[in-house]
Write a structure and sequence with these properties.
Order of helices and strands: HHEE
Number of strands: 2
Structural class: alpha+beta
Strand content: 5-15%
Strand order of the largest sheet: 1-2
Low-confidence stretches: none
Radius of gyration: 20 Å
Helix content: 25-40%
Number of helices: 2
Shape: elongated
Mean pLDDT: 84
Largest sheet: 2 strands, antiparallel
């Protein structure tokens, strides 16, 4: 593949992803073992009602397991807005 063909392929993929964002997930899911989409999770309180932002206490860590029972995830309200930053590798 030369440079011109590479740029055409990249442009085609970029345009396709703008038109239909599921292009990447469909391409990756077609290849076995490359990508697996999981259902969205709804975090609920003990009474079964949905967890809301107002229910979180600042500086407390809430742990839940997603997508597997052995994969811990943490939800922490830092008590202030955290602005995005550019990460340099």
């Amino acid at each position: 593949m030369d440079r011109r063909d590479f740029l055409k392929a990249c442009s085609t993929v970029a345009i396709a992803s703008m038109l239909d964002p599921s292009v990447f997930s469909n391409l990756l899911s077609a290849q076995e073992g490359m990508f697996k989409a999981y259902k969205k999770a709804l975090l609920v309180k003990e009474d079964g009602s949905p967890l809301r932002e107002e229910d979180l206490k600042p500086h407390n860590a809430y742990i839940f397991f997603y997508p597997y029972a052995s994969t811990p995830c943490y939800l922490i309200d830092l008590g202030e807005e955290v602005k995005p930053v550019d990460v340099k590798l």
